[in-house]
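Chapter summary example.
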Amino acid sequence: MNTTITRRLLAGALGAGLALLGAAAPAAAAPGDSSVSVGRLVLDPTDRGYAGSLPVTVTYRGAQAGYLDLAITEPVPGAFVATTPSDPCFFSAPKPVRTIYCSVPGGALQPGERRRFSVDFRVLTTTRPYAMATPGGRVAVTTGDANPANDTADVTALFRSTTGSLDDPRPYVRDTRTHASVAAAGPVVLARQEDGTWSGRLPVTVRVDGDAAHDAYWLTPTLPAGVEVVGTEPAAMCGADCEVPGGQFMPGEERTVTLLLRASADVAPGDLGPGSVRLFAVFGWGDELADVDPTDNTATFYVTAAAG
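The structure predicted for these 308 residues follows.
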């Protein structure tokens, strides 16, 4: 399989720390007049954006035990973390937000059972001294009953201010394009190893200034003939592209990752030529996101194999 296609499939599965893969298809629920209701979703400021949980109550009135499907439309793109208790989930491609598909946690519901659980969210954006709000979220259960109006509840995310207030919330609008840059600390000097190959290190600094929803940032290196990337420090997924370690970024966050380079033993000492590294982000099913300023998404450097 093409390595870029493989990377995009893997990136779409990451979800910046979400355990969203491997969801087993739940058994169909027995028909019945079931319902879902939600409490208030309040996102509190933390040292890393905002976090909060939405209380959910499902009442099941089927004639026999059954599983219920749960669909969660995010009030903020990329905000879903997990259900509590935890249950396997998977997600749709963002258009522009994702819908998360899970089973109602806790297994089969009994006739007449009322089950309570929560849905956890985190928004990686700069905390503000004023309250904010964003509507558009939704929680739905699918039961095949005769009264589908009971099966959906709307959700508005309320962001508590850093002063503790929820009064007079302003609209929260997340960035739709990334605002990131990359710098490479070249030139790279490769040193001869005992087995005759060459080895070197390229520190790369990534900075993200916006809060556009993303699963991960990736680096695409272009290197002189005979030179390849064999890994990163800290360790991360690395093939044709290398993931920037550490998961999702906060606005204003910088990270440095070192690309580990190797050249074959038949490479002659001297200047090997220029190289470059390109930065991009993915969200959802691995599609690249547009950046505010693509000109600072690529950094160049030179590679030299040092004689002696």
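To summarize the output: Helices lie at 3-14.
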